[in-house]
Amino acid sequence: MGFEERPAVLNGTESYRATRPDIVGPDVPQKPFPILMSGAVQRGFGRGGKDLGCPTANLPDESIVPMSSVTETGVYYGYAQVSREKDGKAVLAEEDGRVLPMVMSLGWNPFYKNEKMSAEIHIMHDFRGDFYGHDLKVMVLGYIRPELDYVSREALIEDIETDKRVAIKSLARPSYQRYQSDPFFTDARQHNL
């Protein structure tokens, strides 16, 4: 799927939400996962934190090509790591630089009628400040659900909260936890792919 192809999208309904599983994906990540992405955190629309209570980090458009070329739009889970350093100085707290669970929306955000595809990453951690301009490494390990449109902001928020719970439970399996110490995160030479 290319950046310009906008797929048809289903509506996120109550009946859909009622049938969502608690854990998704096989017990061991399978191709095309893991998918690795990295880049400097960009400013997005600012909707995640302000409008949805779920702050997101946005990667540059070229960083999402490895993902968008082998997968479909939707919500994914995995791990992410924000570099503590910016301009050669450690400016984030040590706990902010750990490898942390994340959920990511890849797509057109039909509720907001985006004009281009984006990857919005929500790292499940309370950061003390923003990290715009910091390098971000993302390892996508599995697929949660397709991209949906919503009749209300509340319905979208409810699905986002479910996505976060599903990601945490799915990542709790030993074969997924081991990726937290993957050389992608620990090897400084793998800083930018």
TrEMBL record:
EC id: 2.7.1.26
GO biological process: FMN biosynthetic process; riboflavin biosynthetic process
Keyword Transferase among UniProt keywords: yes
UniProt keyword Transferase present: yes
SUPFAM superfamilies xref list: Riboflavin kinase-like (SSF82114)
Record GO cellular component, one term: mitochondrion
Pathway where it operates: Cofactor biosynthesis; FMN biosynthesis; FMN from riboflavin (ATP route): step 1/1
Matches recorded under InterPro entries: Riboflavin_kinase (IPR023468), Riboflavin_kinase_bac/euk (IPR015865), Riboflavin_kinase_dom_sf (IPR023465)
An MF annotation (GO) of this entry: riboflavin kinase activity
Pfam families: Flavokinase
UniProt cross-references to SMART domains, sorted A to Z: Flavokinase (SM00904)
The entry's keywords: ATP-binding, Flavoprotein, FMN, Kinase, Nucleotide-binding, Transferase
Purpose of the protein: Catalyzes the phosphorylation of riboflavin (vitamin B2) to form flavin mononucleotide (FMN) coenzyme.
Family: Belongs to the flavokinase family.
The protein's name: Riboflavin kinase
